[in-house]
Write a structure and sequence with these properties.
Blueprint: H1 4-10, H2 17-44, H3 50-65, H4 68-78, H5 86-89, H6 97-124, H7 126-129, E1 131-132, H8 136-147, H9 165-178, H10 180-199, H11 204-214, H12 216-220, H13 230-255, H14 258-270, H15 274-278, E2 279-280, H16 293-327
Antiparallel strand pairs: 1-2
Helix pairs in contact: 2-3, 2-4, 4-10, 6-14, 6-16, 9-14, 10-11, 10-14, 11-13, 13-14, 13-16
């Protein structure tokens, strides 16, 4: 546990309500503009070749939509003169190997439980949840579904078996989460688990609702779940963001670092295309997506495990020490 001195040194200044409201209004305006821009990109690329359309849409999201939280704070600070503690939010002082091990452990726990859940659910109800790919034919089929066009498998350097991609995906996600993905994820985390966490007194569940609603323009246009699942996808994604915000908030509280929340966020994003490639059949609302129902439940289990381990077990240990002290 962090001592009081450490917490005092790393606490952020209090954020006034009027400053918070200006930030939220700026966020709303920029989100509306970015959402309108994404709608324009989707409309303009409707008749383009699927890979081209996908690339343009993802590029727009990466450059102009996902960094909106960072753009919000920059405009609030340098245009609206709202105090934003960038130095404290971007501090790297609290990052240590031990704290990163917590982040990596959370991600690996999710992977193990997620894959295990897909295996069990796929065995019990394959038509509903799908099943893990067992042949390269499954892999090629999922790839074609993902990019929206047929591919020539004979020209591809396919693995000996699809499940080889699982450990490769885990290693790749961990590496990406420590590098480029952490930077992109920090463009979101600096607002959600950084500035707004302080402004709303660390009410991470409420921040998760805002975070999920912020994705409305993307989900409504088919992002993550497809256009056919836009409405249930929106409800599901808000729920997913609430759970994920609790996990990321736990990381911030335990490590005193917004960067490490960004590392976990970026690592998770780095693994996001592995499950759609490896899960055959089923719905993106359930198991074939990392933001489906199964993933939501798994992250909730991980969070509850963290909560129990840090709330009840230390108290039990301290009680045992007190009893032992009295006996001696």
């Amino acid at each position: 546990m962090s001592n009081p001195t450490e917490k005092a040194q790393n606490s952020l200044p209090l954020i006034k309500k009027e400053h918070r409201n200006k930030v939220l209004i700026t966020l709303f305006v920029l989100t509306a503009l970015a959402g309108a821009g994404y709608w324009a990109v989707v409309s303009a690329t409707g008749n383009s070749a699927p890979p081209v359309a996908l690339a343009l849409r993802l590029a727009y999201i990466a450059v102009l939509y996902m960094p909106v939280p960072l753009y919000t704070l920059l405009i609030s600070r340098y245009v609206l003169s709202v105090p934003v503690p960038f130095r404290a939010l971007l501090s790297l002082k609290q990052i240590t190997a031990k704290k990163y091990a917590l982040v990596a452990g959370l991600f690996l726990a999710w992977v193990v439980l997620m894959v295990g859940s897909v295996v069990i659910l796929g065995w019990l109800w394959p038509e509903t949840f799908g099943h893990l790919a067992t042949t390269n034919g499954h892999l090629v089929h999922n790839l074609e579904k993902l990019i929206g066009m047929s591919v020539d498998a004979s020209t591809m350097n396919l693995p000996l078996m699809p499940l080889v991609m699982l450990p490769l995906g885990i290693v790749g996600a961990l590496m990406a989460g420590l590098t480029v993905n952490a930077i992109f994820a920090m463009m979101e985390e600096i607002l959600w688990r950084g500035y707004l966490a302080q402004a709303f007194h660390k009410k991470y569940a409420m921040i998760g609702v805002l975070w999920g609603l912020w994705h409305i323009p993307l989900i409504a246009l088919g992002y993550n779940y497809g256009a056919a699942n836009a409405l249930p996808g929106l409800v599901l994604f808000v729920g997913f963001c609430v759970v994920m915000s609790l996990v990321l908030g736990f990381v911030v509280e335990r490590t005193r670092s917004v960067w490490l929340a960004a590392v976990l966020h970026g690592t998770f994003n780095g693994f996001s295309y592995i499950m759609p490639l490896l899960v055959v059949g089923g719905s993106s609302l359930l198991a074939s997506s990392v933001v489906g129902v199964v993933s939501l439940v798994v992250w909730l289990v991980v969070f509850l495990g963290c909560y129990i381990s840090t709330t009840f077990i230390p108290a039990t240990d301290q009680c045992a020490k007190d009893v032992k002290a009295k006996i001696s």
